[in-house]
Write a structure and sequence with these properties.
By secondary structure, this protein is of the alpha+beta class. The chain folds into 2 domains: about 160 residues, Protein Transport Mog1p, Chain A (3-Layer(aba) Sandwich), CATH 3.40.1000; about 90 residues, Threonyl-tRNA Synthetase, Chain A, domain 2, CATH 3.30.980. Helices cover about 35% and strands about 25% of the residues. The longest helix has 16 residues. The chain is globular, with a radius of gyration of 19 Å.
């Protein structure tokens, strides 16, 4: 289980999927108590090596490969986690594939995966790390800790327990749109809202954002965030990034805009690299109510070896 957990943490969001694809999107199955969610349009990401690196795609493909599914058959994945998931906590990935649940079950049985009854359904236990796998509907399954599997199955039976029912999640993700191949959502628990850079720390745990350090600087300038969403694209030699931050109120969003304006003006002094400097200069932002919208282009050079 520890091996599974460590790999999932390096993989790297949604209501936007539900809007764009209808009720069959896997995002509708994420439990309401999830703190962090990453949604990946795998068919787009697998064709872009830099985006694939952001979500640690090779590691992910290895995990799914243990179920007998090749990465070309994967359509979408949604990773969800608690603030500090453990083997007893909630961390999982919902996977939508172009393969029947019956075929997956047959393969797992042939490989000696043990079975366990969960909620009247057959769950399979990976002999390599003890993680669980359970089919949710044909072509869609959840992998992860037992708690993650149980809570996801609870959403299937009780849709009102889904994250998508939370107004802040819908608001942020609908603002981000439905196009980006990578989307992230973080609902900052009240007890963590005073922790410096909590949001960025969780994001870097789920995704490979080590080279996107300028985001840490931006989130630090924004201040206390209640929730935020992030989308990452790849186009024309850059990573277009859109960040939506939910502040404590309209005044908080307005003050954060002022801080970002000062940051942009002082880009030459604040930025540590040419890529960071270019990103800050490309930044645009606006506030509407308690929501702060930030757009910027991160040069693809940020992914180059340093």
């Amino acid at each position: 289980m520890k091996k599974f957990s460590s790999i999932l943490f390096f993989i790297a969001f949604s209501y936007l999927c539900a809007v764009g694809q209808g009720s069959q999107s896997s995002i509708t199955l994420v439990p309401a108590k999830s703190v962090a969610v990453v949604r990946v349009d795998w068919q787009k990401v697998r064709r872009d090596q830099q985006l694939k690196a952001v979500v640690k795609g090779d590691e992910f493909a290895g995990i799914i490969g243990r179920t007998g599914i090749d990465e070309a058959s994967i359509r979408e994945l949604v990773i969800f986690a608690d603030a500090s998931p453990t083997t007893n906590g909630k961390m999982g990935v919902i996977v939508n594939v172009n393969r029947s649940s019956a075929a997956i079950a047959k393969y797992l049985g042939s490989k000696g995966w043990a079975t366990e009854n969960i909620g009247g359904r057959t769950a399979y236990i990976d002999p390599t790390d003890g993680s669980y796998l359970l089919s949710l509907r044909n072509g869609t399954f959840v992998m992860g800790t037992k708690a993650a599997v149980e809570q996801t199955l609870d959403v299937v039976a009780k849709p009102q327990n889904a994250l998508i029912r939370r107004a802040n999640f819908r608001s942020i993700m609908s603002s981000l749109g439905t196009v980006s191949p990578i989307n992230f959502f973080l609902g900052v628990p009240e007890e963590y809202r005073g922790v410096a850079n909590f949001g960025y720390k969780i994001a870097t745990t789920l995704m490979s954002l080590a080279d996107f350090g300028i985001l840490s600087t931006i989130l630090d300038k924004i201040g206390l965030i209640q929730n935020f969403g992030l989308s990452i694209n790849s186009a024309h030699g850059a990573f277009p990034v859109h960040l939506i931050a939910e502040m404590s109120g309209k005044t908080g969003a307005y003050l954060a805009s002022g801080s970002l304006n000062l940051l942009k003006r002082g880009a030459s002094m604040v930025a540590k690299t040419d890529a960071d400097r270019a990103a800050l200069k490309s930044m645009t932002f606006e506030s509407a109510g308690n929501l702060l919208s930030i757009k910027m282009d991160l040069p693809q050079s940020v992914m180059a070896p340093r």
